Amino acid sequence: MHGLVRPEALAALAGVSRIVHAGDVGAPAVLRALARVAPVTAVRGNNDRGAWAARLPVTARVDVGGRRLLVVHERPHRMARAPAAGIDVVVTGHSHRPLVERRDGVLFVNPGSAGPRRFALPVTIARLVVSGDGIDATIVLLDPRLRLGSG
């Protein structure tokens, strides 16, 4: 979010049971605002600096509805072993490019960025839905002036 909490992002997150933030939070106020919506799991991004950011982990594992999520800011090479580690979903940030793709039984999700618009990329978040049937993700466009795939 790079220090910006958009009202559209908060509205899109209303009713969720957990928020996962893949780094570049920007300021502790962002985490406080998100925590008013739902419990937050956040990792440190390359732009998160200072004492508050040092308390954020570089990676986090979260169990949601019986599914295991790995949250990292940048996508390290070792994530290729996610299936062997029992990971169902890998959530990454950094690139600001929204992505939902399955590889080797693992769902890879990059929610894009809901902070200040970066480059020519759309302003987005992702919604992850966990059910008895499985797990799925959708990219939610927050700025209707831009379409997904633009940029």
How would you concisely characterize the structure shown here?
The protein is of the alpha/beta class and 151 residues long. It has helices at residues 7-13, 28-35, 51-54; strands at 19-21, 40-42, 59-64, 67-72, 89-91, 99-103, 106-110, 124-131, 134-141.
Word description of this protein:
There is one protein chain. The protein has helices at residues 7-13, 28-35, 51-54; strands at residues 19-21, 40-42, 59-64, 67-72, 89-91, 99-103, 106-110, 124-131, 134-141. The model has no long low-confidence stretch (mean pLDDT 88). The protein has a single domain, classed as 4-Layer Sandwich (Purple Acid Phosphatase, chain A, domain 2). With 151 residues, the chain is of the alpha/beta class. The strands form 3 sheets. The protein has a 5-stranded mixed β-sheet, with no helix packed on it.
- Classify the helix fraction into a percent range: 10-25%
Shape type: globular
Quaternary structure annotation:
single chain
CATH topology: Purple Acid Phosphatase, chain A, domain 2
In the CATH hierarchy, what is the class? Alpha Beta
CATH H-level superfamily = Metallo-dependent phosphatases
| Overall tally of domains | 1
- CATH architecture identity: 4-Layer Sandwich
The chain-level mean pLDDT equals 88
Provide the succession of SSEs: HEHEHEEEEEEE
**Biggest sheet, open or closed, and with what strands and sense?**
5 strands, mixed
Structure annotation, total helices: 3
N- to C-terminal distance: 19 Å
Spatial strand arrangement across the major sheet: 3-4-5-7-6
The stretches of 5 or more residues where confidence is low (pLDDT under 50) are: none
Radius of gyration: 14 Å
Number of extended strands: 9
